[in-house]
Amino acid sequence: MSRKVMGVVMNGVTGRMGYRQHLVRSILAIREQGGLPLGDGTVLWPEPILVGRSAVKLKELADRHGLTHWTTSLDEALAHPLAEVYFDAQVTPAREAALRTAIAAGKHIYTEKPTAESLAGALELARLARAAGVCNGAVQDKLFLPGLLKLKRLVDGGFFGRILSVRGEFGYWVFEGDWQSAQRPSWNYRAEDGGGMILDMFPHWRYVLDGIIAPVRSVYAHTATHIPARVDESGRSYQATADDAAYGVFELAGGITAQINSSWAVRVDRDELVEFQVDGTEGSAVAGLRNCRIQHRASTPKPVWNPDLPAGESFRSQWQQVPDNDEFDNGFKVQWELFLRHVATGSAYHWDLLEGAKGVQLAELGLQSAREGRRLDVPELTL
Ligand SMILES: NC(=O)c1ccc[n+]([C@@H]2O[C@H](COP(=O)([O-])OP(=O)(O)OC[C@H]3O[C@@H](n4cnc5c(N)ncnc54)[C@H](O)[C@@H]3O)[C@@H](O)[C@H]2O)c1
After folding, report:
1. Is the CATH number 3.40.50.300 carried by domain 143-326+361-376?
2. Which residue ranges have their beta carbon within 6 Å of ligand 1?
3. Residue 312: is its pLDDT beyond 90?
4. Is the peptide bond before 114 cis (omega within 30 degrees of 0)?
């Protein structure tokens, strides 16, 4: 088999997402499996070209994984003779300028969400990429998780009948950083640094709802900063200026109501860190990251409200697990493979920068809704 080497400039690989999910679990995992077969006897071999701010960290990381290409200059990375793709997992505010530079250099673009901090910026990136004729994609990893793939399978198979509603619960306790260190970066809690629950999670909820249930038509959001002061990575206390919880109500096409709570100030009483319950006329499902359980109309119990008596049945035990019936790979890696194949062969790829802009649109409208205390329509986006 012949090998096609494709240089992938990777920015933000010293961060949580850039390192673990994108470099190790995706690009290096593709190399460990022998590359990505393209179906024509060729194997695509992604060659990371690491770029970042700290030479010390980049060298250490490159040495740890036997990688040879790294630099602290974005221009130098983009000018590397192997470079074909630019990938961005930097902090959100650094993204737009870097993506513009990479598009101007003629590179194919793959990026973490949110693709920009404003809808205007996100749309402009999509337009620039289209005008430059480069392939482009935004990370929409939740669509490739086993639990949500099973949920999509149920929707596609008509399990629900008419879908009525979706209720999502996302979140966990993020420590304040004083007596136990915080498990998320401090910039997440500062609006001026691109933090905030809505900007972080509404892009995910947009593609999950659009892609699995039905297109989002309106949004109402209530936000809170439940923990007003936190302690950062270097032990300094700071004011949390961003929302750390968002309570959203979304109207979807077809009259479906979706309601999603997102919070970093909640203690988990769920099977998974995110769960979506979908209720339909024929059946219901609860999908998490890995698992999905169902209750069909025919096996639905008939509880009777009587607060004088203890609950007479175990409701959680009345659900049935959806079998895997498949092998599920890491969701980030699956989407990387689809994107790299798209670049190499021109195969179809749906999750582009326009789709990414829809996530930014929902975040922007969600923040506006919270500020103004009213429901806002989500207009169709075109380039
Ligand atoms: N798809 C997902 O599920 C998911 C999950 C978490 C985060 N994200 C996104 O990934 C991006 C990175 O998030 P993270 O949690 O990995 O953050 P992080 O703080 O762990 O990493 C940020 C990276 O950006 C770099 N960086 C560049 N300019 C910087 C600057 N001015 N200040 C600080 N760091 C700078 C850092 O060196 C680091 O490599 C964000 O845009 C976030 O929205 C996506």
Report:
1. no
2. 12, 14-18, 52-53, 89-92, 94, 112-113, 139, 141, 185, 200
3. no
4. yes
